[in-house]
Structures are given as structure tokens and as C-alpha cells.
């Protein structure tokens, strides 16, 4: 990437913050931005609660104006496990419902550092376990219609949830969609095995320093960061994973590790499609729906849903 390209891309960079100290400010800013982006006024949603022991997890369910698919997308939002929630992702989920013709269920899992690992993962796993075991109670015709989807840290949680379901011998999702997911623990340009960390780790939408801060807030114990439920690419066994779609952003430090995860699933005799969105930055799923990266992303998502419909009962 030449200096002119680097300069142009830097215009789209997020303001540099000390995430360890400023995560509260980021959360408030994200909610304000979401509040002035109001596509959900045309996309109805309802709020529900999923009981997990003595706690309740909020889930916001979006219905497209035209329901063209029976699939239900269970969505885990991004934000480095530290920021983001169902409010800040309401515009993105409203767009997701309209652009896929699917119902979208957005899960409001607990955030670090108030609730470090494995709290957020336990919430995602618990919700997933309930909707798979009793889909009718969640308003879903059958478990086969459920597709797991997440972006960035949410993609990480989706992958980890699938690993945990397999590890515990429980019913799993048949399909998952991972958008620029975090799959590896090392984002130091000196030691990372991935060239995208070195090429796109500074001055853009997500930096090496920020993701290291996110990791330390989410998983304070460094050696735990290398475990497969935090870094899915470190899993010894990736057999039995759902049919997977992975979309990466060309100009994103997470690009190569996301693509490597798809390759690892395929190498374990699984089915994985991997597509790189040209010229895209990290976080493109939150762009306006008329933007080119969004249009291309949803072309791949819709093609994946068409190519891999819900398995028939008894199949």
C-alpha cells in the first residue's frame, strides 16, 4: 500500500483512544450515533428476554417488511467484547433483516471489563443452547432454520459457541456466518503469523494497540487468551463445525486470521466459504446499506443462504 492510499484510508480511521480508560465514552458515543440512524422505525422489532438461571438476557428480534426466508439469524454483535449492544447495533440489524428477508435476533450479552471472559461467551452459549433445544418457545419453527452470525468479536463468540456446543456433545447449528472474526490471540506485528497484522495494524479502523487492549480487558490472564474459546484458530479439532461463510475486509488487520479459520475448517473436512470484500475496512456491516462493501457482503450472504438451505427434517 503506497503513501497516498494510506493517507486516504486514514481519513476513515476511528479517533485514537485509550480503550482501557475510555471504553465508557465509546459506549455512549456509539449509542448516540445509533440514535440518529433510524432505519428500524420502518423495521418492526420486539424485545424479549431469555432466562439463564437467575439472569435474563435481552434479545431484540427484527422482522423485515417482506419475510422471504424462513431462516432466523441469531446475531452476536462486535465491539471488542467491551463496547456495542443491541441499541448500537439496531441500525445494522434492521438492515440485516431487510437485506436478507430473514428475522434477526440480536443478543445483548454481558460486556468486559465488568464481566470478563467467559461471561459474554456463557451468555451467547446459553441463548444458543435454549433456542436450539426449544425453538418453538422462541417463535422459531424448527432449529434447522437458525443461522448463527456475528461480526468481529461477535464472530469470535459465534465460532466459540459452535466449538463449545460440539465439545459438549450438544445440538449444534447447521450454518454460521462469521464477519471479519477474531480467531487468533497474537496481533503484535513483530510476532504475528499474519501479514495483514503488519500491513493494516496502524492508522485505520482498528489498530494493533486497540485489539490488544480489547483482549486484555476481555481476558486479563494472557495464557487464557491462547485457548480455543478465545482464539478459535488454536482449536486442536475443528471437525463437525457448521457449514460456514466467512467474510473478511481487504484492509483489515483481522483479514488473514479470519481466512485462515475458514481454511482450517475446510482442512478438517468441513464446508467453509471465504470471501474477501475488496477495499473494505473493518466494521463494514455497520455502513449504510447503499455502500459498496455492504452491497457486496449481502450478495455473498444471500448466495450462501440460497446455496445452503436449512436441512430437511430427518436428513
From TrEMBL:
Pfam families tied to this protein: Abhydrolase_3
Gene Ontology MF annotations = hydrolase activity
Question: Which residue numbers delimit the Alpha/beta hydrolase fold-3 domain?
Answer: 73-285
- Has keyword Ligase? no
Which controlled-vocabulary keywords does the entry list?
Hydrolase
Top-rank taxon of the source lineage equals Bacteria
Q: Does the keyword Methyltransferase apply?
A: no
Protein name as annotated = Alpha/beta hydrolase
**What organism does this protein naturally occur in?**
Gulosibacter molinativorax
Q: What is the lineage of its organism?
A: Bacteria, Bacillati, Actinomycetota, Actinomycetes, Micrococcales
Amino acid at each position: 500500500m503506497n503513501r497516498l492510499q494510506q493517507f486516504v484510508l486514514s481519513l476513515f480511521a476511528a479517533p485514537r483512544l485509550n480503550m482501557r480508560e475510555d471504553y465508557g465514552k465509546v459506549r455512549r458515543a456509539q449509542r448516540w450515533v445509533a440514535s440518529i440512524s433510524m432505519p428500524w422505525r420502518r423495521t418492526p422489532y420486539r424485545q424479549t428476554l431469555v432466562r439463564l438461571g437467575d439472569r435474563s438476557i435481552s434479545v431484540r428480534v427484527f422482522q423485515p417488511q417482506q419475510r422471504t426466508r424462513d431462516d432466523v439469524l441469531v446475531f452476536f454483535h462486535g465491539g471488542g467484547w467491551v463496547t456495542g449492544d443491541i441499541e448500537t447495533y439496531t441500525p445494522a440489524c434492521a438492515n440485516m433483516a431487510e437485506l436478507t428477508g430473514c428475522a434477526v435476533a440480536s443478543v445483548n450479552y454481558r460486556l468486559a471489563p465488568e464481566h470478563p471472559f467467559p461471561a459474554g461467551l456463557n451468555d451467547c452459549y446459553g441463548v444458543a443452547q435454549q433456542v436450539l433445544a426449544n425453538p418453538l418457545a422462541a417463535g422459531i419453527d424448527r432449529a434447522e432454520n437458525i443461522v448463527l452470525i456475528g461480526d468481529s468479536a461477535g464472530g469470535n463468540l459465534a465460532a466459540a459457541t459452535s466449538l463449545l456446543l460440539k465439545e459438549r456433545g450438544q445440538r449444534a447449528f447447521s450454518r454460521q456466518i462469521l464477519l471479519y472474526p477474531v480467531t487468533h490471540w497474537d496481533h503484535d506485528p513483530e510476532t504475528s503469523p499474519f501479514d495483514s497484522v503488519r500491513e493494516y495494524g496502524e492508522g485505520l479502523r482498528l489498530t494493533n494497540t486497540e485489539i490488544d487492549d480489547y483482549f486484555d480487558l476481555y481476558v486479563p490472564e494472557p495464557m487464557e487468551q491462547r485457548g480455543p474459546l478465545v482464539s478459535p484458530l488454536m482449536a486442536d479439532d475443528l471437525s463437525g463445525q457448521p457449514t460456514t461463510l466467512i467474510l473478511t475486509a481487504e484492509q483489515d488487520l483481522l483479514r488473514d486470521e479470519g481466512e485462515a479459520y475458514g481454511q482450517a475448517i475446510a482442512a478438517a473436512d468441513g464446508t467453509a466459504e471465504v470471501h474477501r470484500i475488496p477495499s473494505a475496512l473493518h466494521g463494514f456491516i455497520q455502513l449504510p446499506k447503499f455502500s459498496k462493501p455492504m452491497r457486496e457482503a449481502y450478495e455473498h450472504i444471500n448466495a450462501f443462504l440460497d446455496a445452503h438451505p436449512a436441512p430437511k427434517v430427518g436428513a
